[in-house]
Amino acid sequence: MTQPKILSGRFDLAVVADIVEPGSRVLDVGCGDGLLLQMLTSQKNVDGRGVELSQRGVNDCVAKGLSVIQGDADTDLSDYPKDGFDYVILSQTLQATQRPRVVLDNMLRIGRRAIVSFPNFGHWRVRTELLLRGRMPKTSNLDYNWYDTPNIHLCTIRDFVDLTNEIGAHIQRGVALDRAGAPFKLKAPWPVMNLLGAQAIFLLERGHDANARR
Amino acid sequence: MFPAPPPNANATASPNGRSIVFAPDQPLVTDGGGTIAPLTIGFETYGTLNAARSNAILLCHALTGDQYAASMHPLTGKSGWWDVLVGPGLPFDTDRYFIICSNVVGGCMGSTGPASVNPATGRAYGLDFPVVTIRDMVRAQAMLIDHFGIDTLFCVAGGSMGGMQVLQWAASYPERVFAAMPIATAARHSSQNIAFHEVGRQAIMADPEWRGGRYLDEGVRPEKGLAVARMSAHITYLSEQALQRKFGRKLQDRSAPTFSFDADFQIESYLRHQGLAFVERFDANSYLFVTRACDYFDLAADYGGKLAAAFKDAKTRFCVISFTSDWLYPTSASRAIVHALNAGGASVSFVEIASDKGHDAFLLYEPDFFATTRGFLDAAAAARGLPPAEAPR
Predict the structure, then answer these.
(1) Helical spans, DSSP H, in B73-180
(2) Which of chain B's residues have a Cβ under 8 Å away from the Cβ of A59?
(3) Which residues of A touch B342 (CB under 8 A)?
(4) Which of the residues in chain B have pLDDT under 70?
(5) Do the beta carbons of residue B226 and residue B282 sit within 8 Å?
(6) A85-91 and A170-177: which strand pairing?
(7) Fewer CB within 10 Å, N or C, chain A?
(8) Each residue of A176-214: pLDDT tens digit?
(9) Which pTM value belongs to this model?
(10) What is the pairing mode between strands A85-91 and A25-29?
């Protein structure tokens, strides 16, 4: 499949689109202007829904014919019934939520699978900024000052893997992306990816034990 | 392939506009067990029904609204109540869609209501008129839509009580509604909603001129009571912020308080004016009936207490809209609708429009409201296979 021009520079969306099986039901949390949903609808024939906080984003989505609800991941996911979707997607938003663990729990309740992408705070540039310059890191992915950043729950790839274990989710796929947003071709162990990956995308599946706990 | 739209054989031009009469062999049997026959429905249409009859939109008016959504009101001379959204090139584009708006049953602008003649007595119904529900209003609208030979409405839209009708349409006739826009509304009337309506009704009934509802027989009208009902209701349509901005504590045509009970404050003068203007165009008993219809509205109650069951397997595309400063039908009420639609797996969009204009915002030009409505309708029209707008906007 050729990558649409519109997605140049958003490799993470292309990776997400690659993971989603055709014809499935997808909830995109923090869907922005609906780029991914539109792509999944047209290319993968998914039944897509979205949640978006900004008025502008919702308007853009509705104008595209997408079904999008104004709301946010922290407060509104609990309203969704169990197993309403095959995939629940959260792109570059987890680190900005108030309670990331609750959000993840909710995602794996609403859908059997969750696709989560986030900036990796374990990236070597982040580490060196803090180590050598002694300042809160600012990178192309995390271009905010410490006092005005919306990213209040940053984590490393390793931290995230720990959390998935804790909530009993199975990692089905994990992809690290370089600074340009392209997936690493080389297969490397996670500690290496945690150093080299600027972003990561995980496909999680609900674990049985997690199910039992609910 | 499709026959031409039927001529409105029964439609007549009256001072109140167009109407159709359903003969006694087509009665409206109400939820309360009453029968309304003959049934007259006053309506207006805008635009042209296409050959496939696939471009019809039903607009449902609010409590004291009427069928004059986009044309001059015959009594007040004012422009249509949804002039900002309905017209050529507007979101409800009369160049593209065939737009129908009918007066609700129980109303007083051409549809059968308590001021109509009761065939059993030859006098006005008064309180003998059956208490009607939102579902009865929708049944009457469905009769009108049948009359037009329309199977599926492209869209049903409306705000406030109109939004309740939209929800009822989607629940009662899911296969006949392609798209639905319930705006600034709720799936059930809250205790507070009922309370305000009861204040209005009591004001009317406390007016000596109400005469137990038989004022028309005696050639009088409970104007004072109806005006007070309108005044109290009008406050609920506005936000505190909007009131404060518009009126504050400003005095009316005077520089100091008069130490009397004159309308010293502008807000008092404004409300009195609203009350007086209202009694010119509205029937007091109608006000009792339409407020009652809202009070009885609890869509979930008809579906075992589960609102989601009302929208089970709905194929209709929904766009739910609320306004931040609307405390009469607050965003939480819209969210409850969205929640139920989501639970049923329906296709639903939801937007909370930032506005400080209160409940009335749905009648006003709000850019984001305008944009959302246009976007939703354009996208739904494309999905329905309707041709795009011809002229560039």
Answers:
(1) 134-147, 161-172
(2) 351, 368, 371-372, 375
(3) 49, 69, 79-81, 84
(4) 1-16, 391-393
(5) yes
(6) unpaired
(7) N
(8) 998 888 888 777 888 899 999 999 999 999 987 544 444
(9) 0.89
(10) parallel
CB contact under 8 A, A70 and B319: no
Distance, CA of A20 to CA of A26 (rounded, Å): 8
Q: Which CATH superfamily is domain B12-189+299-384 in?
A: Alpha/Beta hydrolase fold, catalytic domain (3.40.50.1820)
Number of residues assigned to chain A: 214
Query: ipTM more than 0.90?
Result: no
Contacts of B104 (CB under 8 A, 6+ apart): B60, B61, B111, B132, B137, B140, B161, B165, B290, B293
Question: Annotated catalytic, B160?
Answer: yes
Domain boundaries, chain A: 5-213
Nearest-by-Cβ selection for B350 from A63, A70, A80? A70
Using pLDDT thresholds of 50, 70 and 90, give the confidence band for residue A3.
Answer: very low
A5-213 topology per CATH: Rossmann fold (3.40.50)
Token pair 């995602």 is found at A107
CATH class of B193-292: mainly alpha
- Using CB atoms within 10 A of its CB, is residue A140 exposed (0-12), middle (13-18) or buried (19+)? exposed
- In 3D space, the residue among B73, B56, B55 whose CA is nearest the CA of residue B65 turns out to be B73
